[in-house]
Design a protein that fits this description.
Blueprint lengths: L9 E2 L12 E3 L1 E2 L2 E5 L19 E7 L2 E6 L10 E5 L9 H18 L12 E2 L6 E2 L6 E2 L4 E10 L2 E7 L10 E4 L6 H13 L2 E13 L4 E11 L11 E8 L13 H10 L6
Parallel strand pairs: 2-6, 11-15
Antiparallel strand pairs: 1-5, 3-4, 4-7, 5-6, 8-9, 9-10, 11-12, 11-13, 12-16, 14-15
The structure holds zinc ion.
The site of zinc ion has 8 residues, from loops.
Length: 276
């Protein structure tokens, strides 16, 4: 999956650092990222943009190389560099750099939309001890936003329920998905989403894996569960256009490395390796 970047190693512990030669600079503007020219995704080194170094903030490291977020004014055209649409990066290579680009974008969106205190309107400042923004005036502390959400594989013995969205560009079959609402346990969310989206009851929840999904600032948690009682899925018609049972042998084989938790959970079911 996107975050499985081994043998590369990601380190996100909070540090206050200054850029040094070889470190990378992540510059975002209007849904785009500044990348090096070329087929493979790569980022400018801090030394390529010396004027940007002063306005950059340390985010994380990969294999000991530090990644800094540029937070200054709009950059002019730079030789050897080009702007790439973030929405196109999911298909870019290598995957570990896509992970770096999107994880940086998650933090960039958060910093970009939290410049002043929402309570008193004063400018926010950076904490020196943790990844947080602090209002020195009213004392509020804000942390990066991560929304918990579930990916739900409803099974019936040898069959898996796949769904298709009504109004999204993504037209392939997927699993049921939904955000955890305030006051809900994950078990409540799971029952509620399955009931709302396809009108079924479920039991025997089996946790599979989680996935940070920076495209939507989300932490996904994948569960398998069994349908209980009525088998006929009734898609809600608003969010979902279609919901169908597929037997293992009907699922198309996809043995490439899966980018998403959904893809991996469908493939694991096809191979009969899901938690029982
Ligand atoms: Zn305040």
């Amino acid at each position: 999956m996107l975050q499985d970047i081994a043998p590369h190693a990601y380190a996100v512990e909070f540090k206050e650092k200054s850029p040094k030669e070889g470190d990378r600079l992540l510059c975002y503007a209007g849904g785009r990222l500044l990348a090096k020219d070329g087929e493979e995704l790569d980022f400018p080194c801090v030394t390529d943009l010396p004027e940007a170094m002063e306005s950059s903030r340390y985010l994380f490291s990969i294999d000991g190389t530090a990644y800094f977020l540029y937070q200054g004014d709009a950059l002019s055209e730079q030789p050897g560099l080009c702007w790439r649409e973030l929405s196109d990066l999911r298909a870019a290579t290598p995957m570990w750099r896509v992970f770096a680009a999107m994880t940086g974008a998650h933090l960039w969106r958060w910093y970009d939309s939290h410049r002043v205190c929402g309570r008193c309107g004063k400018p926010l400042t950076h904490s020196h001890t943790e990844r947080a923004l602090v209002c020195r005036d009213c004392g509020i502390t804000l942390y990066p936003q991560i929304a918990p959400a579930l990916i739900i594989a409803v099974t019936d013995g040898d069959k898996l329920l796949l769904t298709r969205y009504a109004d999204r560009p993504y037209k392939r079959f997927a699993l049921i998905a939904g955000y955890n609402e305030i006051g809900e346990s994950l078990e409540d969310t799971l029952r509620q989403e399955v009931r709302e989206e396809v009108g079924l009851k479920v039991a025997n929840f089996r946790y599979y894996k989680s996935q940070p999904w920076p495209f939507t600032d989300t932490l996904l948690m994948g569960f398998y569960c069994d349908v209980e009682g009525e088998r006929e899925a009734r898609p809600d018609g608003q969010e979902l256009a279609e919901a169908r049972w597929f037997s293992r042998s009907e699922l198309p084989a996809d043995e490439r490395q899966s980018v998403s938790l959904t893809q991996e959970m469908i493939e694991v079911f096809r191979q009969g390796r899901e938690p029982r």
